[in-house]
Amino acid sequence: MATVLQLHSTPSSQLIHQVAHCLQEGGIVAVPTDSFYALAVSPFNQIALERLMHMKGERGHKPFPVLVGDSSQLDQLTEDIPDVARTLMEAFWPGLLTLVLQARSTLSPILTGGQGTIGVRQPNDLRVCELLKHIGSLTGTSANRSGQPPAQSAGDVTEQLGSVVDLIVDGGLAPGGRPSTVLQIEPELRIIRQGAISRGRLQQVLATESTQLSEE
Fold this sequence. Notes:
It contains 7 helices and 11 strands. It is α/β, with parallel strands linked by helices.
């Protein structure tokens, strides 16, 4: 069974070390976010990505979203951040908005789903952001097998995936609710998945840029 580590108000140096070591070895870690628990691997570790794909089961060619501790970590994931994306980050990050940007060509097609793009967001959980700042960006796909409900607690993760994940970071009960809104930035602004951030709220911010969302 997976080792369970307790995440308190701030991640301890011991927890950071254990998580970092696990990830460096190609391990899979379940971490809390501002919605549900997520399965985290290094987005630059091909073996870990292959393990994650196998664990999640049949999901077609869906890409894996990535969580960042702050916007400085985007440089390893994309070569270009359009001004409109920066405006949206300032308005909604940290929070439940995933922005789909052009991916660096060096990223694994498992991560990008072969689409040449990468979905990124900064979660609204200071503890998790602090952890990410120490260990780098991580995948943020929901901690469940395909077709099963997303995990809202460490116990849920243990029940579904305890025999196959390596570490579970127990940060208590995740808020649940609606998942993040997924917004494609290029070649056109388009909502791929409607979630916690409404179209109206996005359009209010985009109006300052004289930019319109494409019709769904």
